[in-house]
TrEMBL record:
Keywords: Oxidoreductase. Residues 5-354 form the FAD dependent oxidoreductase domain. This is FAD-binding oxidoreductase. The keyword Oxidoreductase applies. It comes from Pseudotabrizicola sediminis. InterPro entries: FAD-dep_OxRdtase (IPR006076), FAD/NAD-bd_sf (IPR036188). Pfam families: DAO.
Amino acid sequence: MMQADVVVIGGAVMGASVAYWLTLMQPGLDVLVVEQDPTFARASTALSVASIRQQFTTAVNVQVSRFGIGFIRDFKARMGLDLGLKEQGYLFLAHSADGATTLNDVAQMQRAHGAATEVWTPAQIKARFPWLEVDDLTAGSFGATGEGWFDNMGLLSGFRAQAKAQGARFVTERVTGLRMAGGQVAGVVLERAGDVACRFAVNAAGTRAAQVCQMAGLSLAVEPRKRTVFVIDAPNARHPDAPLLVDAGFYLRPEQNHWITATVPQDDGPCAADDFEPDLHLFEEVIWEQLYARAPGFDAVKVVRHWVGHYAYNTLDQNAILGPHPDVPNLVLCNGFSGHGLQQAPAVGRGIAEHILTGGWQTIDLSDLSVARMVEGRAFRELAVV
């Protein structure tokens, strides 16, 4: 029978980060990472818009991204890879007096944790980005530093390569079951290799996280949600210094000479794990009219390509679900990121490794994101889900 100290189920960015931190913190620890598709063709990591921000509505998420931006900035020194970080900021727009109040309140919290969020009047938005229409706005919040986008696959590649160099093993396999004994995971069952005995199992299975929990007789409120992303050409809107703009019905950011844009479908709900059929109607029927109203330079627009990615959506509160499961203490969850997992991978991987090795959260207190709140149905809601 094969064995390992820790079996990580899922080898995309979250699983790779956990493996990196475990083998960094405890050299010689036997870590096995199991990934069924090493091309990552349908992984949320590969299909992400690859952005990072400090503008969250919960303090723990700000702290997580504060660590993440520093890690990404220093990635070349750590891993030898330049992630091409473009710190052009996020601009969140408010359309009501209540919305402006919320931006101010949240910005105050973000600044208290080290973020550089500024809240602007519509006139200030217009002065900085004159190509935007602001007459219907009440305020905007802008992250002057610490926000932008980067190379998603570079982050994954760096974590994987360094974890391997530190002794982690990566195998291409499909997990078919968990062997339970005495209320704990005694082994992870692989399709070809069979049973792998372990002391800990980490669920980093992304949109399939609930399936892994079911193998232990547990439920998990995480489901795949489809997002169709459009790459558009707008010859009358060349603004290479633009931020990632978050408006009421869409988001938009520059991508070389083009733009990336997407929206949340009005009938948003779960999809099949293998459903990657694009919702092409969303651009013309939902996004374009709003985009043109916000920026008249988008009068002439052409969709040049598109892709579909899945959010591992936490239906309770759209926040990460982290740490040991109360009913199966050596099954450690790393799930439910609801679209912001890539940017959280550096800090979350470190936190999960610390918890496995020490029995508790260390550098950042991640207890607000505990599995216990899910079991109890006690929502800890993140409102800034893009």
